[in-house]
Design brief:
Layout lengths: L1 H21 L10 H5 L17 H8 L24 H4 L33 H4 L5
Organism: Brassica campestris (Field mustard)
GO cellular component, one term: extracellular region
Subcellular location: Secreted
Amino acid sequence: MEAPTLTLNLLLLIIVSLLFISLPRSEPLPENPSLVLLGDGFEWPTSHGDAFDIESFDDAGEEEDDDVGVSDRRSLYWKRRRYYISYGALSANRVPCPPRSGRSYYTHNCFRARGPVHTYTRGCSSITRCRR
């Protein structure tokens, strides 16, 4: 009598596991599903470039429209790179980049950066349009 109970238990286990696998999985919905549908309508670049690339956002801020739509808002669904601050950078009395190297603090891995330094060479008139 042990053999029929063993096969019955095995059959019951298989049926329960198949039922468990066939159940629909629930996934959380986004808070505002309309942003997901409008993902291609954004006007600013959605490339995965440098997170500190300011030039790519300069053109997006110049257009001033009175009608601010959903596509003009910043989306929370962007995939961004994450840069973490190391414990060495948080230690006291430590300069992030070599002194007088001409590199910005915002240069990623400025100790390992090679090649020419792109210094700031634009004049006062092109930035603030001030008089000399």
